[in-house]
Amino acid sequence: MQSSSFLPEDHQTLPDHPGVYKYFNEENELIYVGKAKSLKKRVSSYFNKNTGVNLKTRRMVKEIVRIEITLVDSELDALLLENNLIKKIQPKYNILLRDDKTYPYLLITKENFPRIFPTRKLIPKRGTYFGPFASVKAMNNVLDLIRELFTIRTCSLDLSYLKINEGKYKVCLEYHIGNCQGPCVGKQKETDYLKDLEHAKHILKGNLGIAKSYFKQEMQLLAENLEFEKAQKMKEKLDLLEKYQAKSLITNPSISNLDVCTLVTDEKYAYVNYMRVKNGAMITSKNVELKKRLDESEEELLITALIRLQDQFQSDAEEILVNIEPENPIDGLQLTVPKIGDKKKLIELSLKNALYYKKEKALLQGLNQDKKDRVIKQLQQDLSLQEIPDHIECFDNSNIQGTSPVASMVCFLNGKPAVKEYRHFHIKTVEGPNDFASMKEIVGRRYKRLLEEEKPLPKLVVIDGGKGQLSSAVEALAELGIYGKMPIIGIAKRLEEIYFPGDSYPIHIDKKSESLKLLQRIRDEAHRFAITFHRKVRSKNAFGTQLTAIPGIGEGTAERLLKHFKSVKKIKEASEEQLTEIVGSSKAKTLMEWKEKNKEAVS
């Protein structure tokens, strides 16, 4: 693969070749990744006169300052590369597949007499992983089947030949009840054990037919040798396997290996159902939600989800059934829209799942919105507010023994944290630990700025503290001439009392009330935000003091060093050349001399 960089105005010089294009903004941030059969035609389409039908696309094009392309051999290669980049970087204008869960896998370990057990951590060197499974229940069903069919050990002993031969171990209860054949004491050969393990792998891959043939052949062979008890055990295992297959059978067993992917959409989202079918049995079913970022077609959304899900579930299906006829077929990706028969029934089943998922999401979204509306309306009643408090800001101070005093403001919109609106404050005008004066300073600074920028004031201001902190905040609002223009309350931590300005007695909201829980959550978030910032500042000040104690190193130099190296330890480990790049040769020599004098501390 070859990569090259271009300016937006040079888009006409791009090659007429399959590949992936990446758009970067002024901050050199990757904002969009796309694939193309012809890079020249596709990229040029963003910059021609017809561009801009969609507002989001217009906005993205304005941000582009650099284009990077990677040439590949085929459109399918471009699609796979695009998928990997989007999954890894998640550019802000690409389709977002909402799926932040970690799924369970079954791991077959790399060791003597390998084990099979569930895990959610993927560490390739540990062994071979099968999955992911869409649910723990589905995974446990397969694992239980394997343990009933085969005697795979469940212990974690190190079964090296040396330890087995030295007689390090004794058989456990699993051996006595017939779940293990005792490889730890040499009662089972590894070749026989690995034969069972190989059949277990076929089951994990969904190839039940191979395991069924094995049990059938063993049963017939044992019967011919008049070993009827052993033959009966094989028959029971065969029946168990057929019963398991019958449970998951959804269509004709002759349908051997295919994927099914269907999509339905609304204005903002797409809802996808993905199924893997082997030998007529559904071995995976998964619903996902995609958030549209630009003006993507249904075909683009479907293919994005399909490639991501096939990658996630390690699909090797050659045929994929879909409900949307592809207008631009991709070589190497066999998409089929079945019209009749069992395959058509699979599409109908998948589509039913996608539609149900869409309905479920819409219902959940409605319930969540209803709950948020209900809580802030309840808060309005409990506090006797004239307006619904859909914009709440909360302030908190943080200092320990007067050191590094800081403060925070958190913002909640419609009952949800609006993290982008959070603010940190360094206390500038107050000396020593004075919470009241600090509160007056930060409230005054916050609303002076909002007034200057002509931004809307909140519908409710919450002060973390009792009457003293609340009175200080009121003074700040009065000096700005906005006291009375927005309600302000204080919440005391000890008894969760709510104070209003001028009232001697607090009001109490029912401890089980959703509105009190919302206020507590806002207060706790402001406290967390302030404490986190305080620790960061205190740590930085401590490091800075250690450096500024060195003759010739001032605060500016210490700050530059800490910004680059992140810690005093790394500064101590840096070479003279590295230090020179940051602070110049003279100060680098000063630091090297200091390091030489403090060798023991460095080591």
Q: What can you see in these coordinates?
A:
The protein has 5 domains: 2-94, GIY-YIG endonuclease (3-Layer(aba) Sandwich); 105-206, no CATH class; 257-360, 2-Layer Sandwich (Nucleotidyltransferase, domain 5); 391-527, UvrC, RNAse H endonuclease domain (Nucleotidyltransferase, domain 5, 2-Layer Sandwich), CATH 3.30.420.340; 549-602, DNA polymerase, domain 1. Helix content is 46%, strand content 19%. It has 19 helices and 20 strands. It starts with a strand and ends with a helix. It is found in: Cytoplasm.
What is the percent of helical residues?
A: 40-55%
Q: Please state the second-level CATH architecture of the largest domain.
A: 2-Layer Sandwich
What would you give as the CATH superfamily of the largest domain?
Answer: UvrC, RNAse H endonuclease domain
Strand percent estimate: 15-25%
Residue stretches low in confidence (pLDDT < 50, at least 5 long) are none
Task: Find the CATH topology of the largest domain.
Answer: Nucleotidyltransferase, domain 5
Quaternary organisation of the protein chains: single chain
Shape descriptor = globular
Total DSSP helices: 19
Query: Any idea of the CATH class of the largest domain?
Result: Alpha Beta
Radius of gyration: 33 Å
The number of distinct structural domains comes to 5
Mean pLDDT: 82
Largest sheet: 7 strands, mixed
Determine the N-to-C terminus distance: 45 Å
